[in-house]
Amino acid sequence: MVKRIIAVCCVLVMTVLIFAACEKKPPMEEINGIEKAVAYDEEGQTVLNSSGQLRVYSLDEKGHIQYEEDGTPVYSYVNLPSIRADGQTVDTDEYSLTMPGGWETNSAGVFSKNGTDGKCTVSMGLASSLEDSSFDAYIQENRMTNEENVQKVKEQYPNYTVDMSTENFLLAERNAYAATYIIKDENGKVVHYAVMIYYSYEGQAYFINYICKDGIGYDESFDFTSYIKENYVIK
After folding, report:
1. Rg of the Cα atoms in the chain
2. Which residues are CB-contacts of 110 (< 8 A; sequence separation ≥ 6)?
3. Which of 121, 150, 142 is nearest to 200 (CA)?
4. What is the pLDDT of residues 51-67, one digit of tens each?
5. Which helix or strand (DSSP H or E) is residue 54 part of?
6. Element (H, E) at 176
7. Residues paired with 77 in a beta bridge
8. Which letter does DSSP use for residue 109 in this model?
9. Pairing between strand 120-129 and 111-113?
C-alpha cells in the first residue's frame, strides 16, 4: 500500500481575491504548490496510478467534489515532481529557476524575497492535467473565475481599484499565459500584487506565481514575466 508521500511546495494563489462561502468543502493539501483534495482509499492511504501520479478529487468552481451521475466521485491525477532547492535555485525533473539576488528558496521550493517575512513569494508546480480539455480551454476557465473574483473585490471594496492585464506568449516554445493583478486602496497604495503564469507541457498545465501580499515587497521596476521568459528552464 502506498504511503502518504506528497511533494509539497507552498503557494498563495490570489488569497486577497478569494472570499469563499461557508459551505463545507473537502480537506485540502498542498501538492506541487497548489491545494488539492487528495482522494484516499478506504484505509486512508494515497492512491497512485500506473504512471506514479497521485489520485485527487475533481472539484467544481466552489471547491466541492464533482460526481458522476451514478454518484461516483470524479477523479484526476497529478504529478509529484522531486524538488531540489538550494539558495537562489529550485530544480526539478520538469523545470528549474534561479532568482536574482535578494531572493532565497526554502526546502519546499518556494522563493521568498528577503525582508518581507514570507509575504512576497514565487512558487511553481503542476496546476492541472489537460487530459479532458485543451490548454486554451483551461486558461479560459481560469480567466473567467479570476474575473469573477475581481468583481467580488470591487463590490466589497468600492473605493479600491483592481487592474487586471493578460498576455499570451511562448515560454521555451510552449504556449503560456500570464495574468497580472494590482489592487490599490483609496490612497493609491498597492495592497496586493500577483502575477500568475501558466504554460502547457506534455498534457499538463504548470503554474509560476509571483505574489506580494499586502503589497509587501512589490517592486514596480521588477518585470517578473520578462524575467521568467529569460530564466525559466523547461526540461
Report:
1. 18
2. 9, 10, 11, 33, 121, 122, 123
3. 142
4. 778 899 999 888 899 99
5. strand 54-57
6. strand 174-184
7. 55
8. S
9. antiparallel
Q: Cell numbers at residue 207, please? A: 503554474
In a 3-state reduction of DSSP, which class is residue 172? coil
Which amino acid, 71?
G
Terminal-to-terminal C-alpha distance of the chain? 31
Residue type, 34: I
What is the Cα–Cα distance from 148 to 158, expressed in whole angstroms? 15
Adjacent-strand bridge partners of 209: 123, 196
Q: What is the pLDDT along the chain (235 residues), one digit of tens a residue?
A: 333 333 333 332 333 333 333 445 788 877 766 788 989 888 778 888 887 788 999 998 888 999 999 999 999 998 765 788 889 999 998 899 999 999 999 988 899 999 999 999 999 988 888 876 799 999 998 899 889 989 999 999 999 999 999 999 999 999 999 999 999 999 999 999 999 999 999 888 999 999 999 999 999 999 999 999 999 999 8
Classify 69 in phi/psi space as left (phi over 0), alpha (psi -120 to 50) or beta.
alpha
Contact at 8 Å (CB) between 83 and 109? yes
* Residue 140 · residue 133 · CB < 8 Å: no
8-state DSSP, 53: P
